[in-house]
Design brief:
It is found in: Membrane. This is Ammonium transporter AmtB-like domain-containing protein. One of its GO terms (molecular function) is ammonium channel activity. InterPro entries: Ammonium/urea_transptr (IPR029020), Ammonium_transpt (IPR001905), NH4_transpt_AmtB-like_dom (IPR024041). Belongs to the ammonia transporter channel (TC 1.A.11.2) family. A two-stranded antiparallel ribbon has the order 1-2. It folds into two domains: 117 residues, no CATH class; 146 residues, Ammonium transporter fold (Orthogonal Bundle), CATH 1.10.3430. The longest helix is centred in the middle third of the chain and has 25 residues. Helix 1 packs parallel to helix 3, helix 5 packs parallel to helix 7 and helix 6 packs across helix 7. It is built from ten helices and two strands. The protein starts with a helix and ends in a 15-residue tail after the last helix. The chain has 302 residues and is an all-alpha fold.
Length: 302
């Protein structure tokens, strides 16, 4: 894992930061529009981690099927030609997704409105892009000769799920909306219970693996929405995204797609559904709590 994150991280240092945020030169001064109180070099390192995570998700789909050197070359250029552009569209001051509501305004370049796609924590650039890219990588490389389908260490899986579930909301102290941690936990719980329920309907078995998969699906669904939706909506989002990911995972097996980490089914499908449902359930009164500009979602007539 450190190897496949090193290649895209290097690329992000060389040109990714400049391409996404026009950070040149890097130094101790702050970047006034995007991070006015953070030195540009620190801001670059922060976003470099996201580039590495996205690359790791792509690689998670194809274990035992790719050699190190070709894989590093692929993920280096994938980061530069895919991830960096989507990150710019979503996060940069003049990204068209970030300013989708005011693209037609004559003074858009001078006064971007920052009202566009609702993505609180990078669902589009990271999980949707990496999930579907991993699925495409799988389709190109094909199946493994020997598929190791059994879960060899459920204890580690439970521990890792717990770290993802409660470790990520622990960083909420660094953002303006602590309530995001609450809806994140609610959605994860709803996703876990939904996956377990539907898996029991089809297999007549209850398993910790099913619960962990559902928790991940719930976390993936709430990531773009956590700063925009109420707790009741988090339950709906977690349940619907978990059901969508579960259905996608079953279809993957039926169609014989050897995506070992379910990157397409979980990160791709889950991230996409989460972004769509964010646009449905976002509420303006929630974003007003920390001064984030928005117009609410479909339930408020937008």
């Amino acid at each position: 894992m450190p190897v496949d994150t090193g290649s895209p991280s290097t690329g992000f240092i060389i040109w990714g930061a400049a391409l996404v945020f026009f950070m040149t030169p890097l130094g101790t001064h702050a970047f006034p529009h995007t991070a006015p109180q953070i030195p540009t070099v620190a801001f670059m390192v922060y976003h470099m981690q996201f580039a590495g995570i996205a690359a790791a998700l792509v690689f998670s789909s194809v274990p035992e099927r790719t050699r190190i050197v070709p894989g590093l070359i692929f993920v280096f250029f994938w980061t530069a030609l895919v991830y960096d552009f989507i990150a710019y569209w979503t996060w940069a001051d003049h990204g068209f997704l970030r300013n989708f509501s005011c693209l037609g305004e004559p003074d858009f370049l001078e006064n971007p409105c920052f009202i566009g796609v609702y993505d609180f924590a990078g669902r589009g650039p990271i999980h949707v892009a990496a999930g579907f890219s991993g699925l495409a990588y799988v389709l190109v490389l094909g199946k493994r000769k020997v598929i190791h389908a059994e879960h060899h260490n459920l204890v580690n899986m439970m521990f890792g799920t717990g770290v993802l579930w409660f470790g990520n909301p622990a960083t909420i102290t660094l953002i303006k909306l602590p309530a995001a941690g609450v809806v994140t936990t609610i959605s994860a719980a709803a996703g876990g219970l939904t996956w377990v329920w539907f898996d029991f309907i089809f297999t007549r078995k209850l398993s910790s693996f099913s619960f962990c998969s559902g928790v991940i699906a719930g976390l993936l669904g709430i990531t773009p929405a956590s700063g925009f939706v109420a707790p009741w909506a988090a339950i709906v989002i977690g349940a619907l995204v978990s059901l969508g990911c579960y259905t996608s995972s079953r279809l993957k097996k039926r169609w014989g797609i050897d995506d070992s980490f379910d990157a397409g089914s979980l990160h791709g499908v889950g991230g996409f559904l989460g972004m769509v449902l964010t646009g449905v359930f976002a509420q303006k009164w929630i974003t007003d709590l920390d001064g984030t500009p928005s117009r609410g979602g479909m339930i408020e007539g937008n």
